[in-house]
Amino acid sequence: MTKKIRVGIIGYGNLGRGAEAAIAQQPDMELVAVFSRRGAVDTIDPEVASVHIDEVDKFQDKIDVMLLCGGSATDLPEQTPQYAEIFHTVDSFDTHAKIPEYFASVDKVSQASKKVNIISVGWDPGLFSVNRVMAEAVLAEGNTYTFWGKGLSQGHSDAVRRVEGVKAGVQYTLPSEEAMDKVRQGENPELATNEKHKRECYIVLEDGADAEEVTTTIKTMPNYFDEYDTTVHIISEEELARDHQKMPHGGFVIHSGKTGAGHNQIVEYSLKLESNPEFTSSVLVSYARAAHRLAQEGQFGAKTVYDIGPGYIHPASPADLRKKYL
Amino acid sequence: MTKKIRVGIIGYGNLGRGAEAAIAQQPDMELVAVFSRRGAVDTIDPEVASVHIDEVDKFQDKIDVMLLCGGSATDLPEQTPQYAEIFHTVDSFDTHAKIPEYFASVDKVSQASKKVNIISVGWDPGLFSVNRVMAEAVLAEGNTYTFWGKGLSQGHSDAVRRVEGVKAGVQYTLPSEEAMDKVRQGENPELATNEKHKRECYIVLEDGADAEEVTTTIKTMPNYFDEYDTTVHIISEEELARDHQKMPHGGFVIHSGKTGAGHNQIVEYSLKLESNPEFTSSVLVSYARAAHRLAQEGQFGAKTVYDIGPGYIHPASPADLRKKYL
Fold first, then answer.
1. What order do you get walking across the sheet with A229-234 strand by strand?
2. Distances (CA, A) of B326 to A96, A194, A208, B153
3. Which are the contacts of A120, defined by CB distance < 8 A and separation ≥ 6?
4. For residue A127, how many other CB atoms are within 10 A of its CB?
């Protein structure tokens, strides 16, 4: 029996919690401890060690790979370069526009510390990124389309809840079926973001609020809703509590290409997720395995999903993968 | 301007022809020559050099990567170990059960010749294999289902044409929509191959043949049709020529998993191909790029899609991929 991969988690919000659950599902991993600025946290499994972040240095020889489960806005840009000095890491940095700069700042540390630090893992960036690149590599003449949803959008839900007369509510982003069908037919349409997506709001009104006025305010809100096909549903507090407490998400990457004498070739990848944070952290956890294996091969540096062979994230050996999965 | 990757093709059937077309679509590749046992062949682009296979040794310094486009039954098991001595290669060996033995025989040569030899590239084995492994790595608790179709099946078409009274015909394999829907709903059904697929035959009758008798003979044919939901359509020669000359194929890899407290998570990958051989050879061509880059890094040995980072098959640099696609 091979030794299990010893994993740690820094940050214990939805993502850290999902990572704890995902590690428990993996046959070859064990969770050593959860680290938080809050000190002890309420872990799913009460047996899991919960430690203040200031103590993390003491775990240098006890943890093979550290999962960084903080936010992209302020946590990760500071934490990843810091912890890359002493740990192999995997993180979910998802501010697309800042990835090159983030990669550089992590890689500078990794090159000196000789650690493997895999950045921007999850589903977008992450699995969607893999599919965009592979489909385009194979079908050079073609277009790639990314559609998101059905998904709960945190930013848009916040915007809805700020409207006067709204007591509570959520917003879902939905892919436009019409737009997706055009792409699947090989029509290669030009589509703006607002043509690819629709928005659906479920709100509870404050006592005495005017439904029509609130609806109009939401639908005409600049940047958030005015350019989209937006539907507003007025529901009761009971319905909100009963039907809208999950964090679903997902989406589609569709590549439409042509080969030879104009043959249409459609490649489609999609996710339908009942829990967005649990899925994202499951991806992080699988890449912890890759970080560990790359480190054992003597590799180091900042890495992305593009650098890593798919077999590295699966528990089976290369020989078993060839035999059972290829 | 970087030098283009110089590619050669051995074997000029549907796959070799598709490879010629695919290389022409890639910005960073050039086709040096096509090699065949038949000597000169009728290439799509008449400017392409067409050379007898016996001359291939002379091209050792003129070709960076050789695509082996022969068949899996007899060509590749002989050719790949032979040409792996002098070329980096990519092939589409697709006899799933024999892959371990084939890998070993190629790797033995590659280790000595220090060449990169990527085996079993295409869509199944190939892109489907990648998706089976990645989805299962992420969602450890779950089941993976592969459905094929709608696709023209050569073996089943041959079987139909051997039936007395059948003048000509084709057979398509179709995925069962009912079975796919069960999987997509997270039901994790147990499904035998004949529950996952249906078979559809389009046949032209010989003069005087009995439609009902022929239909019954086909539907009850052991191994090929008796255990499947099979439909037989009688059509005219004109209809066969007009509607059934393409080689469509495709299929679905659906992984249904659960995370945390039982949340369903569905990952789906699908291909809808108007030309199966053109798509397969497009995949081969993209992996020629990976073979070339791995060789430049000093790597060697037999490889599969599991060993190769997705970025290696795309023409853009790692920095550009991070900036534009991640």
1. A151-152, A166-175, A197-205, A229-234
2. 7, 21, 47, 37
3. A91, A92, A93, A94, A99, A102, A103, A126, A129, A304, A305, B326
4. 23
Other Cβ atoms within 10 Å of B260 Cβ, number? 21
Chain A residue with the nearest C-alpha to that of B146: A325
Residues of B in contact with A183 (CB under 8 A): none
Q: Is A103 touching B (CB cutoff 8 A)?
A: yes
CA A126, A132, A137, A138 torsion-angle sign = positive
> Is the Cβ–Cβ distance between A251 and A145 less than 8 Å?
no
Q: Which of B81, B73, B87, B101 is nearest to B35 (CA)?
A: B87
Question: If you write DSSP's letter for every residue of B221-288 in order, what string do you get?
Answer: -TTTTTTSEEEEEE--HHHHHHHS-SB-EEEEEEEEEEETTTEEEEEEEEEEESBHHHHHHHHHHHHH
Sheet with B229-234: strands ordered across: B151-152, B166-175, B197-205, B229-234
Q: What is the mean pLDDT of residues B162-169?
A: 96
A contacts of B311 (beta carbons < 8 Å): 133, 304, 306-307
Restricting to B residues 249-308, those with a Cβ less than 8 Å away from any Cβ of A are 259-261, 263-275, 278-279, 282-283, 286, 289, 304-308
pTM of the model: 0.94
Residue A274: burial class (beta carbons within 10 Å; 0-12, 13-18, 19+): buried
User: pLDDT of chain A along its 326 residues, tens only?
Assistant: 579 999 999 999 999 999 999 999 999 999 999 999 999 999 999 999 999 999 999 999 999 999 999 999 999 999 999 999 999 999 999 999 999 999 999 999 999 999 999 999 999 999 999 999 999 999 999 999 999 999 998 889 999 999 999 999 999 999 999 999 999 999 999 998 889 999 999 999 999 999 999 999 999 999 899 999 999 999 999 999 999 998 899 999 999 999 998 999 999 999 999 999 999 999 999 999 999 999 999 999 999 999 999 999 999 999 999 999 99
Count other C-beta atoms under 10 Å from residue A3's C-beta: 8
How many pairs of residues across A and B have Cβ atoms under 8 Å apart? 226
Q: Within its chain, how far is the Cα of B124 from the centroid?
A: 5
Specify the amino acid at residue A56. V
**Residue A127 phi, psi (nearest 5):** -65, -35
* B140 secondary structure, DSSP code: S
Q: What DSSP assignment string belongs to A55-103?
A: GGGGGTTT-SEEEE-S-TTTHHHHHHHHHTTT-EEEE----GGGHHHHH
**Around Cβ B61, how many Cβ atoms within 10 Å?**
8
Distance of CA A245 to the CA centre of its chain: 19
Q: What is the β-pairing status of strands B49-52 and B65-68? A: unpaired
- Stated as kind and residue range, the H or E segment containing A131 is helix A127-138
Q: How far apart are the C-alpha atoms of A63 and B222, rounded to whole Å?
A: 57
Q: For residue B101, what are the CA distances in angstroms to A326, B109, B125, B153, B324? A: 13, 13, 15, 26, 40
Say how far apart CA B242 and CA A149 lie, in whole Å.
40
Asked if A259 lies within 8 A of B272 by C-beta distance, the reply is: no
d(CA A311, CA A326): 10
Answer yes or no: do A310 and B246 touch at CB < 8 A: no
